[in-house]
Please model this.
Amino acid sequence: MSSVLFDEPGPRARRRTRIATGVAAVVVLGLVALAVQRFASTGQFDAELWAPLLDPRTEEFAQVWAILGAGLGTTLRAFALAASASLVLGIVVGAARVSLGRTARLPLVGVVELFRGLPVVVTIFLAAEVLRLLDSGTSSYWALVAGLTAYNSVIIAEVVRAGVLSLPKGQAEAGLAIGLTPAQVMRSVQLPQALRTMLPALISQLVVILKDTALATVVFNDLQDLLYAGDRIRISLDNSLQTLLVVALVYIALCVVLDRAAVWTERRLSRSRPTAAPAVAPAEEAVTRV
Amino acid sequence: MDPVLENLDLFWGGFVRSLGIVLWAFAGSMVLGTALAVCRVSPVPVLRAVGTGYVAVVRNTPLTVVLFLFAFGIPALQVNASFYVFGVAGLVVYTAAFVCEAIRSGINAVAPGQAEAARAIGLTFGQTLTQVVLPQAVRTVVPPLGNVQIAMVKNSAVVGAFGVGGELFSVATRLTSAQGEPRLPVYLGVAAFFLLITLPAGALLARTEQRLAVAR
Model:
């Protein structure tokens, strides 16, 4: 165990670390004990509060998890739709913002900056109102998807733009030199490379989208996502703390899976890079030397 | 836009109250987040585990769920406070995880030679961190930290939509449901007031970023 910040500990430092560890452990255990004691004294460990969530033998168990499962389904569907729409739209807008001329991209820049400054809750509210102005029967589900897409496609566009701008200039120049049109260069030279380097950032934005689907419960009162399901259960079983903790755990599990996927793809991509990278670097050098 | 202009004083009052939430959450998340970041890089394994665990759990929980836990879960433990306090506390707890990560990335970005030199002249972990690494980390930390706090301003809207009373969202709800004003212009008004904070903050951050970038 060493880091840049401290030496491989000698005997004195080891003793100090041991003492600090002891003190910290006592403090942390004390806090945990305090929390446990609080749970116990207010009866939050009572079996009847946890059983409907954890014990398959209770009669509520099946029903509770059926409701949570349905909510989870809605959450995942809204997420999948909003995520794919944001990716497609974000890539198009991001690529357009880089490719267009200074004046032509002005309206695009305005829209991007505006949406970037708005809270997602507000864009969901606005999306719902605008959609209902067009068609009064628009469901909350589509309003949520539209609101999430409006906000996140703009963020993804910025990520894509940063990715394209971070590429060496020679990439685009080489594409143009062999006679590709600017659109072809963007599509088959710049975007594939940009998306690759930006993949971790893109996936962590997907985690944000997944988390933001929970806003549906605050904004609408008729969209039965995972949190809404939990909210209904906690009210009817009168076990707010327990149900909400379980719901939080489900969200955490989903996000961790997405996060792992990000780490995994990042590692895979960086493993395949060493063969590609040296081929690029000398070529670039050659260009500058001319 | 009539409903907004006619009720501008209401909106302004809501804006000021929203600003209050933002300022409390800013101060709280900076203190908690910095403490967590120090834990995460410290040589004490227990503290490192606490920091890592906190970030892993909180970062992957939706803010809405955090707020639900504060507003409905904590009272079950017979800890009672107003929605305002719970709302701010939820926002602090949530934002602190991101502040911690921003600061940690800044600490990691300081050239290793700096910390090595500090150790070579015999500074302790605490001295290395406070006198050599952190002053330099501040520079690299400003852009990501600024982004985290701008995101916090936007997240404060969730606290508002959750129902704190008196701030921008409550004003909107009051106007649309109690007074029957059309919803679209009212929400556009709310949006405008948020842009009033986030756009200048973003511009200021971009400028600071440029100025600090030269120094490195």
User: Anything to note?
Assistant: The CA atoms of residues 143 and 209 of chain B lie 6 Å apart. The first helix of chain B runs from residue 2 to 6.
